[in-house]
Design goal:
Blueprint lengths: L9 E11 L9 H4 L15 E9 L3 E5 L8 E8 L3 E13 L3 E5 L2 E5 L2 E8 L2 H13 L1
Antiparallel strand pairs: 1-2, 1-4, 2-3, 3-8, 4-5, 5-8, 6-7
């Protein structure tokens, strides 16, 4: 399989807590409100918190193995990675895999677990730098 992602990934197996947090209200001037459009976060799961496993990590996001959240859910994710430290990030669910999937590979098959991809909206700069350094060493 060819790698099509923009950012190099670090394979991890980090237990995590994921919480669907939604999006706060935005108050705009009436003139701006008339012309402003914004993607709205899915609200059907707001307040849900559950254990998950971060399976891969980049400076831009992560794949999280768990029951998939709806697309455009806004989430808070907390986990620890050896050599990086405690990661506390906010992001958006941009894709999901509804069930485990097997793909053919030269050595047999590869199992891709169910879960979802998160694009980070907010992650501390020192953590983003530590992830970049770990990916470069891998």
């Amino acid at each position: 399989m060819s790698e099509l992602r923009r950012a190099a990934r670090l394979v991890v197996n980090a237990p995590a807590i994921v919480e669907s947090i939604g999006q706060g209200p935005m108050h705009l001037h009436p003139n701006l409100e008339a012309v402003f459009r914004r993607v709205q976060a899915d609200t059907t799961t707001v307040g849900q918190s559950f254990p998950a496993v971060v399976r891969d990590l980049s400076t831009n996001g992560a794949f999280i193995s768990a029951a998939p959240l709806p697309l455009l859910s806004r989430v808070a994710v907390k986990f620890d990675v050896k050599g990086i430290g405690s990661v506390d990030a906010v992001g958006w669910v941009l894709w999901q895999r509804a069930a485990d999937c097997e793909l053919p590979a030269p050595s047999g098959t590869v199992l891709l677990p169910r879960g979802f991809g998160v694009l980070f909206e907010s992650i501390p700069l020192e953590i983003r730098s530590a992830i970049a350094a770990a990916v470069a060493r891998a």
